[in-house]
Amino acid sequence: MVVVATASARGVPPKRRHVITSTSGSRFFSWKLLILLCVSLSCLVVLASLFSLHSSYLSNADSSNHFKVTRSTVSRTFHGPPKIAFLFLVRQNIPLDFLWHVFFKNGNVAKFSIYVHSAPGFVLDESTTRSSFFYGTQISNVIQVSWGESSMIQAERLLLAAALDDPANQRFVLLSDSCVPLYNFSYVYNYVMVSQRSFVDSFLDVKDGRYNPKMSPKIPREKWRKGSQLNF
Ligand SMILES: *[C@@H]1O[C@H](CO)[C@@H](O)[C@H](O)[C@H]1NC(C)=O
Predict the structure, then answer these.
(1) Residue 152 belongs to what domain range?
(2) Which of 2, 35, 73, 139 has its CA 20 to 30 A from that of 60?
(3) DSSP 173-210
(4) Is the residue at 68 inside a domain?
(5) Does residue 96 lie within any of the structural domains?
(6) Of the spans 111-120, 170-179, 215-224, which averages the highest pLDDT?
């Protein structure tokens, strides 16, 4: 899935970043500082179009242990507006849930869905999140994720698999626990829905010392890029 997202983003300028924001008045001013801080934490927002994801998902289905279900038999018709699926891959809770709460509150519940992959055993409820939008959003099939390891990719795939069960989900946004919305819901919805492209956060980090020569020649040094959640 990760490779797919990269491939479908070909043609997108490498430095292009998509960050989402919520602005609804001056009381958000202090939040803006927080937002800037969070953005500097290199938040990744991957906006993936259904068509590329879904078709490659089907073609890759056989090679994955987690996608044994024959999706082609599932009806892809749905009623109501198309939805954006917000896929949160987090350590435990959603640290910036109060910002997301405002974002979703000003949105249209018929136009989005939320899926959360959190640590096995962790439950999002009144005691662990300030936003009721996150109640009952955790996917049931979760794994122990180690940051920087391929279990992260596995977890993203589990999130996508859960979201693909609802044919109304037409766009998929991969989010980490340091991601924040920088635009309001309607702006994001319209922007993402009209786009036929996937967006991948990928940039050249000149200070990056993470390239391992053992990855050559499959991944040559000049092709190595940094992304916030995943390195390509
Ligand atoms: C959302 O943001 C856009 C662009 O910033 C603005 O034009 C629009 O009025 C906002 N919509 C709502 C519902 O706040």
Answers:
(1) 83-199
(2) 139
(3) EEEETT---BS-HHHHHHHHHH--S-B---B--TT---
(4) no
(5) yes
(6) 111-120
- The β-bridge relationship of strands 112-117 and 46-49 is unpaired
- Nearest atom in ligand 1 to 106's CA: 13
Q: Is the pTM of this model over 0.85?
A: no
Residue 80 CA, ligand 1 centroid: distance in Å: 23
51 assigned to some structural domain: no
- Check pocket membership of 55 for ligand 1, CB cut-off 6 A: no
- Exposed/middle/buried for residue 214 (C-beta within 10 Å: 0-12, 13-18, 19+): exposed
Per the structure, the count of domains in the chain is 1
Residue 76 maps to a domain:
no
pLDDT at 8 over 60: no
Q: Which of 106, 108, 186, 189 to mutate to test the pocket of ligand 1 (most atoms within 8 A of CB)?
A: 186
Is ligand 1 within 6 A of the CB of residue 70? no
